[in-house]
Design a protein that fits this description.
AhpD-like
């Protein structure tokens, strides 16, 4: 792992919005196959916590092995990031949702802001509905569960729930270190 501890980096660099270039270079070279996930994961991988170091590969799973499409991943990701108010992950995934996920800007903005939206694709719609139910003070109704199971399968439902847990951890860590949306060297 990177030698620079997150608390030192946070106190000296993050509040100013500047990420040390050497840190980003180390992280991006180590996590190159993870691509987008590496940017958020770098905060977790710098932590002295063995737990956080061990869950970092979860992000890689969603880039290479998930049963969800990139658009579906970004629907869930933007909803959960919006819930936790983490400036950096919201800014990053607003862009990713549009560019890599192919989602309309207005839809991504609605996801982040917690505003109602809808999707023509039935799988995207059920990911939106399932995620909204899971992250709100709601119960997943039996009918929604059945639709999700028919459209996503059990693996897809598990992918959604683990993705929400993963990005909850990422968002709360970014928020704890007050990583700004404009952190230099993190968003290309």
């Amino acid at each position: 792992m990177i030698a620079l501890s997150a608390p030192v980096w946070a106190s000296q660099r993050m509040r100013s919005g500047v990420a040390p270039p050497s840190v980003w270079a180390q992280v991006s070279s180590k996590f190159r196959p993870i691509a987008v996930a590496a940017k958020s994961s770098m905060y977790l991988s710098q932590s002295p916590s063995k737990l956080l170091q061990n869950i970092t590969p979860t992000g890689a799973y969603f880039e290479t092995e998930s049963t969800l499409t990139k658009a579906e991943i970004e629907i869930a990701t933007n909803l959960i990031n919006g819930k936790w108010h983490a400036a950096y992950s919201n800014s990053e995934h607003e862009q990713i949702g549009q560019v890599a996920g192919g989602l309309a800007p207005q839809k991504v903005q609605a996801l982040i802001a917690g505003l109602p939206t809808s999707f023509d694709d039935p799988r995207q719609q059920v990911v939106y509905e399932l995620t909204s139910a899971l992250i709100g003070p709601r119960v997943v109704p039996q009918g929604l569960y059945q639709r999700a199971r028919e459209l996503l399968g059990d693996k897809g439902i598990v992918d959604v729930t683990v993705l929400l847990g993963w990005f909850t951890g990422v968002s709360l860590t970014l928020a704890a270190y007050d990583v700004p949306s404009h952190a230099a060297g993190l968003i290309p």
